[in-house]
């Protein structure tokens, strides 16, 4: 489960950065909306997957609600999932 969670966290973080670093500027500055639709959908799916896997992972490890909250907030911040992976998940591997 740890490998799945770490992979999901990294993919969600990459999709978040692609959304705000590539597709949103293309949409608003160059009037090219197509990449935003694809990247936005991928990011939405990965975000939901990340939250679901985080709930299952925290339940499985019997982690506190506070630690889940930290993992959840990390998904809302740029580079947050990379920080969560390094601080909380890498030490378990």
From TrEMBL:
A UniProt-annotated Pfam family: DUF3817
Keyword Transmembrane helix assigned: yes
Transmembrane segments: 7-26, 38-59, 68-84
Localization annotation: Cell membrane
Keyword terms of this UniProt record: Cell membrane, Membrane, Transmembrane, Transmembrane helix
Main location: membrane
GO CC, alphabetical: plasma membrane
Superkingdom assignment: Bacteria
InterPro entries per the UniProt record, alphabetical: DUF3817_TM
DUF3817 domain residues: 2-88
Record keyword Membrane present: yes
Bilayer topology: Multi-pass membrane protein
Name of this protein: Integral membrane protein
Species: Flagellimonas zhangzhouensis
């Amino acid at each position: 489960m740890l490998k799945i969670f770490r992979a999901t966290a990294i993919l969600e973080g990459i999709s978040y950065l692609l959304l705000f670093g590539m597709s949103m500027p293309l949409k608003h500055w160059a009037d090219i909306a197509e990449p935003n639709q694809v990247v936005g959908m991928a990011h939405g799916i990965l975000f939901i997957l990340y939250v679901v896997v985080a709930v299952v992972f925290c339940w499985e490890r019997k982690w506190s609600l506070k630690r889940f909250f930290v993992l959840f907030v990390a998904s809302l911040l740029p580079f947050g999932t990379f920080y969560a992976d390094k601080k909380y998940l890498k030490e378990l591997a």
